[in-house]
Design goal:
- The structure is a single chain.
- The protein has 270 residues and is α/β, with parallel strands linked by helices.
- It has a single domain (3-269), classed as TIM Barrel (Alpha-Beta Barrel), CATH 3.20.20.
- Helices cover 49% and strands 11% of the residues.
- It is built from 12 helices and 9 strands.
- Helix 4 (51-61) crosses helix 5, helix 6 runs parallel beside helix 10 and helix 11 crosses helix 12 (248-269).
- The termini are close together.
Length: 270
């Protein structure tokens, strides 16, 4: 598996794309070029579009994968049941409005913090395996991993590292990820932090990874130095409310960051 070929996954936030054509067009052009484009319904931001609007963004951008709406820390079984219902309904609606390339629906595993740790881990893994068996692509996020098992990783939780949390989860659940690979399931890691140098840890595990913040930090002139994205600060709270009017230099720098990450991963995994 050539991990670097897929990096970084172009991660499009549906609610931003619905408001700002410039933002949507950036991802549309990526899809036209054959990049992996993943549409997110806005779960983390708490701003989920109505179903018909979400499907319209998927159609407009020409996404490769679209995430079924999920709720952070919702019970794993309820999350899985809702994802199946959504896919069934969405596929019918999308067929009626679009005859383009079919989108692959992505299931992002979640887990309740109220569940006992052993049970939470068991049910999380069961729902991810069920989704794999039914042809979903899979999204592995920090929050789902944390609730399923990561809250016991004391050395990880102390540094609050997205990369380290998932790397440890993969290490402790080798058989689960071997099952995904055997099924030919596309697995996406939601989010890359500053430490892009950590990408080799996911060799042969994730098909792609992303960060929505590449768009923000790239537009602000951030650079990658010694495997670290020198972004200086977190995304501002009004990031999702800004009217995006990218200047050519800003747009060029966003692409430059994405290409640097891809080359870094290719060098590390050869």
């Amino acid at each position: 598996m050539n991990l670097g070929y897929h990096l970084p996954g172009r991660f499009c936030l549906a609610q931003v794309a619905a408001k700002y054509p410039v933002y949507a067009d950036w991802f549309k052009q990526a899809a036209i070029r054959g990049e992996t484009v993943i549409i997110d319904p806005g779960t983390y931001e708490g701003d989920i579009l109505p179903e018909d609007k979400y499907l319209e963004v998927i159609r407009t951008v020409g996404a490769t994968h679209a995430i079924c709406p999920d709720i952070l820390y919702r019970g794993a079984l309820q999350n899985w049941e809702e994802a199946q219902k959504f896919r069934c309904k969405a596929e019918k609606l999308l067929r009626s409005m679009w005859t383009g390339k079919p989108v692959t629906w992505m299931y992002v595993g979640q887990c309740s913090l109220e569940d006992e740790q052993k049970l939470a881990h068991e049910v999380y893994c069961q729902t991810m395996k069920a989704a794999s068996a039914l042809g979903f692509s899979l999204g592995v996020c920090f929050d789902g991993v944390y609730a399923a098992e990561g809250r016991t990783y004391e050395f990880v939780t102390q540094v609050n590292s997205n990369e380290l949390m998932r790397a440890e989860f993969v290490h402790r659940n080798v058989e689960l990820f071997a099952y995904f690979k055997k099924n030919g399931t596309y697995v996406h890691g939601l989010g890359i932090g500053k430490q892009v140098c950590q990408l080799p840890h996911y060799r042969g595990i994730f098909n792609s990874m992303d960060t929505a913040s590449f768009f923000w930090h790239g537009s602000q002139g951030a650079r990658i130095a010694n495997g670290i994205l020198d972004c200086g600060s977190r995304r501002p709270k009004d990031y999702f409310e800004r009217t995006w009017k990218l200047e050519p230099l800003q747009q060029s720098n966003i692409w430059n960051i994405c290409e640097q990450v891809k080359k870094l991963a290719n060098r590390a995994t050869q």
